[in-house]
Every structure is written in structure tokens, then in C-alpha cells.
Design goal:
- The protein is of the alpha/beta class.
- It folds into 3 domains: 85 residues, Orthogonal Bundle (Arc Repressor Mutant, subunit A); 97 residues, Periplasmic binding protein-like II (D-Maltodextrin-Binding Protein, domain 2), CATH 3.40.190.10; 108 residues, D-Maltodextrin-Binding Protein, domain 2 (3-Layer(aba) Sandwich).
- It is built from 10 helices and 10 strands.
- A 6-stranded mixed sheet has the order 4-3-5-10-6-9. Strands 1-2 form a two-stranded antiparallel ribbon. Strands 7-8 form a two-stranded parallel ribbon.
- A hairpin with a 2-residue loop joins strand 1 and strand 2.
- The protein starts with 6 loop residues before the first helix and ends in a 7-residue tail after the last helix.
Length: 308
């Protein structure tokens, strides 16, 4: 192979970097907006160009070879360095007001702890933040970016998916004291229940519990009882206080689980079919300031857990 990489090889390396991150040609193809076959072919051409294999093709999954792991680490560092420098260059010329709307639970528990990083990167951008429930219709013109939890259907708007939500029961360890063991869904009969009545747009008061139990084939358990709250954060605070068993959202509960303030009595985690996403009017990302905040949110959503 020649000493210098040509443009085609650089293009193949980008495809390799994305494939290595996902360990999936299909997901890489989705990110690149090409076919899975095109990704597979480009990886094959890169392997022929380099003279060694990068992936082991297993049934239904990919594995990096030793050479692939070493190359992936170098390529990932290179792309990260380029991305950081581009962001630094952008941040020097960006100022003004960006209107950001978010569902309250996501804003309070996920976004707020991360906002100091946005402020440090773009000190001249002023974020005007509004907390609004997902069941209040989005209206064009009253925000630049909106973070919402829904099925991804927003007529007249564009959406950038962030993460899928999963749900599962949680409670305070203190709640278990003096009660029968909480090992099966049927044991919930001995425990008070807590409900978030604004789980997602159009959901009813007991939707999260009923969705969870149906998914684990325990729909016969009656959960239409207990305290209700109109904010996920209030429901989690009630659970932490030992008031009952609540349904938690995986995206918003890592701190309490990590500290032991809450525990998950059942192992199953269930997808809701709902996704967090950034909603914006068509053409909104043509404004470099809006694009910068948008890309920062996406970057934070993709940040590995525990990485500062």
C-alpha cells in the first residue's frame, strides 16, 4: 500500500469507523443513508486495500479482529480530534438566543446536569429554556429546538432521533421492609403503586404499568390503584421517599440506581415504542447557532455512560 492514503481510502475508513462503532453493517448503512450491501462492499474493498481482515462475520453479529480493534481506536481518535476542532472553530463566531423546549422530566433529570458543558463550549449563546409537557401540541414559531418523547410522528416538522425509552419498576429498599418479598408481578398486590399520568402523548393514567405488565405477560395483575402524579420527576421522588413502587424510565433514573436510593425488583426492561428526539422546523438547522446546539445534544446522547 502506498505511503499516503488516497481519497477513496479515506472514504472507506469513515465507513469502517461507523461500522466499528455499531458493530453492524445495517446500522452503519442507516447512519450513512446507503444500503447494507454498499457498506459491506466498501469494507471488503478496504480490507483488500489494507491486506488484512477487519471484521469476523458471525451469524447475526460482527466482531472486530485484533487488527480491526487497533485500527478502530486510531480512526476514532482522529475523527474525534477533527470534530473537536470544528466545534472550537464554530464556537468562536456564535452568539445569540436559541429557544429550547423540552418535556419537564427530560429537562430536569437529563439535560440540566449537562448544560454547563454547553455553556462552556458556546459561552456567547444564550439558551432560553421552556419546560412543556409532551401532550401540548408543538407549534411552529415558538421554539428553535424541542426535545420531545413520542412515536416520532411530527407532521410538518423534522426530527432527529436521540434514544429509545425503556421502562421498569423501581422502589426504595426501605419499602420492602415488613412486607412479603417482591419477586413476581403478583407480589405487587402487597405494595402501594405510583403512576405518572403524563407518560407520553395520549397515554392514560395507568398506561406505563399496564404496558409493562402486558409486555412481560402479566397483564392479569391489577394496577389501577395508588397515587398519581403529573410529572415523572414527582413520581420518582415519591418512590425514593418509600411511598410505593413506580415505573422508571431508563434514560432518567441512572443516578438513583447507581446510588442505591432506588432498586429494580424485576429484571425485565420493556421498550415503550417511544423515542426522545429533537424536533425542529424544516430549515431550522440552516442557522449555524441552532445547528451547533442541536449537534451538541446529539453528542451528549451518544456519550458513553460515566464519561465526562
Amino acid at each position: 500500500m502506498s505511503r499516503h492514503l488516497n481519497a477513496q481510502t479515506h472514504a472507506w475508513l469513515k465507513v469502517f469507523a461507523i461500522s466499528a462503532r455499531h458493530l453492524s453493517f445495517t446500522r452503519a448503512a442507516e447512519e450513512l443513508h446507503v444500503t447494507t450491501g454498499a457498506v459491506s462492499q466498501q469494507i471488503k474493498q478496504l480490507e483488500e486495500r489494507l491486506g488484512f481482515k477487519l471484521f469476523r462475520r458471525r451469524p447475526r453479529r460482527l466482531e472486530l479482529t485484533e487488527e480491526g480493534m487497533r485500527l478502530a481506536a486510531v480512526v476514532d481518535q482522529a475523527y474525534q480530534a477533527v470534530g473537536v476542532e470544528v466545534k472550537r472553530l464554530r464556537s468562536g463566531v456564535m452568539s445569540g438566543i436559541i429557544r429550547l423546549r423540552s418535556v419537564p422530566s427530560f429537562l430536569a433529570r437529563w439535560l440540566m446536569p449537562r448544560l454547563p458543558r454547553l455553556q462552556a463550549r458556546f459561552p456567547d449563546i444564550e439558551l432560553h429554556v421552556t419546560a412543556e409537557d409532551s401532550n401540548i401540541s408543538l407549534r411552529d414559531g415558538d421554539f428553535d429546538l424541542a426535545i420531545d418523547l413520542n412515536d416520532g410522528h411530527y407532521p410538518g416538522f423534522s426530527i432527529t432521533p436521540l434514544m429509545e425509552e425503556q421502562i421498569f419498576p423501581v422502589c426504595s429498599p426501605a419499602l420492602l421492609s415488613g412486607r412479603p418479598a417482591l419477586r413476581r408481578p403478583e407480589d405487587l398486590a402487597w405494595y402501594p403503586l405510583l403512576h405518572d399520568i403524563t407518560a407520553w402523548r395520549g397515554s392514560h393514567d395507568y398506561a406505563e404499568w399496564e404496558h409493562y405488565l402486558q409486555a412481560i405477560e402479566a397483564s392479569h395483575v391489577n394496577v389501577r390503584r395508588g397515587y398519581t402524579f403529573n410529572r415523572n420527576q414527582l413520581t420518582m421522588e415519591a418512590a425514593t421517599a418509600g411511598m410505593g413502587v413506580a415505573i422508571a424510565r431508563q434514560t432518567l433514573i441512572s443516578g438513583e440506581l447507581g446510588s442505591g436510593a432506588l432498586i429494580a425488583p424485576f429484571p425485565q426492561r420493556v421498550a415503550t415504542g417511544m423515542h426522545y428526539g429533537i424536533v425542529h422546523a424544516q430549515g431550522a438547522l440552516d442557522d449555524r447557532r441552532v445547528l451547533a446546539v442541536h449537534d451538541w445534544i446529539v453528542e451528549e446522547a451518544n456519550r458513553p455512560p460515566g464519561r465526562s
